[in-house]
Design brief:
It contains 14 helices and 12 strands. By secondary structure, the protein is an alpha+beta fold.
Length: 371
Amino acid sequence: MTTPDTTGGYEVLVENRSENIVRRYFALLRHGTGLLLGAAYAYIQREKAIGNNWSLRLIFLKILLAITWAFIDRNLIRQPFAVQFRRRLEMLGPTYIKLGQILSLREDLLPKPITDELQNLLDRLPALTFERYVELLEETLLLPIDQFLLELDTVPLGSASLGQTHRAVLLTGEEVVLKMLKPNVRQMVTNDLRLMRIAGVVAQIFAARYQPRRLISEFSRYTLLEVDLRTEANNAEIFAANFADEPDVHFPVIYRSYSNEDVLCMEFFRGHKPDARLFDTLTKRKVDKAIDLGIGATIEMIFRDGFFHADLHPGNLIVFDDGSVGFIDLGMVGRFDSEMQRRMLYYLYFLVSGDAPNAARYLVSMTIAGP
């Protein structure tokens, strides 16, 4: 029996593993076919605009659309193709939203109108109700919330494709953030990634220059780590140890007693986002201090530790009132071995010194060549 749950704008199916992956396969097939028909419609409209109406290709595509028109979402297909692409990724759910967010950075793979549109992918999806959140929290931790929380905000700090966060206060007085995976997300992501790997093998045959199998494999590895919140807890503690001698660079304290693979309880950072309004809040000296600390910490992560924040953007950096900085959302990290660190150091040295040939040589040495 299937129980639909539309939390987050996509169906979460509560069923056994084999039924779930079959349903996900047909959902992917439906949206993939719809996207191809949308591309055909956009192509016809573009050719029509330049006065080309009767080529053999156009006639074939018009016949195809006429046959399938009754089954097409007509409101969606009339949108620009880039909008159709974004909307279908949103409808497919968390795995594909994250994939689209990554593709939005890949102007080397996709046309700019598509990458620009993908930057509008939802980063705040519909949230679980507060009652449902509390119920799941107690089920996951096997503990009534009044036995460890003094207060829990009813309005979430954020609701993304994979999880939802709330500010809370522990009975011991510490202000914390509780991040919890949404119901059934792990199973959905696991099934989606299995299907994507199969698609990657097929795509490798037709588009080997873009190395789709390697890209999907890397995306799968990172995404699977993100749906086990113990990974983020471990990363936070590693970063904290690496920067233990630098009091102005902060990473959230992890409360292991209230954390597991589905829930992460960590220190709440009360500070400011590093945007233009920061200059209205802090003095120039403190802003300069924050910039120096942020850049310095990033360089140390890469060249000293070989362990760095791999999803670093302004939303994942907090500036405190004294100009010190804190790093959050530590689920995605990267690692460089000593050889890669050496190559990157030489690349940056030659780049800064204006030696383009040697900079290019070291840059190429860090790439994986296609066929």
